[in-house]
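As agreed, record passed on underneath.
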Amino acid sequence: MAVVLVFSGFALLYAGLIAWFTYGWMRLPAFWHKENNDVSFSVIIPVRNEASNIMQLLILLRNQEYPKGQYEVIVVDDHSSDTTASIVERKMASGFLTNVRLLRADQFKREAGKKNALSLGIENAANPWIVTVDADCILNRHWLQSIAGLIEQQQPDMVVGQVSVIPAKSLFSQMQALEFMSLTGSTAGAASIGKPIMCNGANLAFRKDYFEKVGGYAGNENYASGDDVFLLHKFKKLKGARISFLKSHGGLVYTRSSVNLKEFLQQRGRWAGKAGGYRDGFTLVTGFVVAGYSLIIAAGIIWGLFFSVSLLTTALMALVFKALIDFPIMFSVSGFLRKRELMWLYPALSLVYPFYVSASLFYGFFLKPSWKA
């Protein structure tokens, strides 16, 4: 009886939470970019050993449909051991990159770490709006235009952008792309109802003066990642600060999937591990409900397989219930991203989801993965 009550309680909490996020996603209008924006940006790219990716990103930034005089690009080399910095330097010297600056963290005597690299770039930024992006991302040519248009329309202090995983041919990659849609929908839905809980540093914009006002990334240096979410929570606590979500095809940033299970769990472990530093109440409640429901489902299935048919039945019913609750937002997000063909994998994703969440939590809290070696 007690087990049934626990499952029922988590199921009701989970259903209410996801229904709220689904409502938020559905009510959020799609934004289309416009021309003649007056916002000036400093785009910060923290890099470590990104020789194979950095030029593609810089070319995409060079080709933005945005006035070159209204944005600068600052590449911050975080103690790379490859040719990342020299590639950027050669292209700058040739005149191919005209609004790009390179900062070497070691020359500024900065310790390694993504937050330190980002801070160095922001300190040296010339413009009032900061935009962060990762070196391995692919940008739409209307990316900056879309962010600027939303800023002028809604006057926010932070813009949470949308990130989408590019599915490769493998089922593992396609599963990642589909799974990431659940994060996209929840992120957008929570922001839409005025309760932002997540963001992604691969597509994030914020006012530089507000960054300085909240103390930047200080206070969470012991976490391998979280520069984005910790900053979001700081903005959220700042009286009068406004946070908007950019639901826009033009403002999309694309990223590649993890190449193998180890890399995937390392990434999700970093995300899970930073939860120990959260102080935002709604984010903690959300994490408790989502992670807790997945944990009891995974534990119930494993324990039930060996010791209790009734427990196994209850856990499987909870798994099916979760899949039904998640389906509307997954179906809608996949349609917006024009990836609905991936929904055929939804049953398989629903089955493995509780187990990978449990593994990610273990990885994040006990193995403490780092940003990059």
Summary: Residues 309-336 form the longest helix (28 residues).
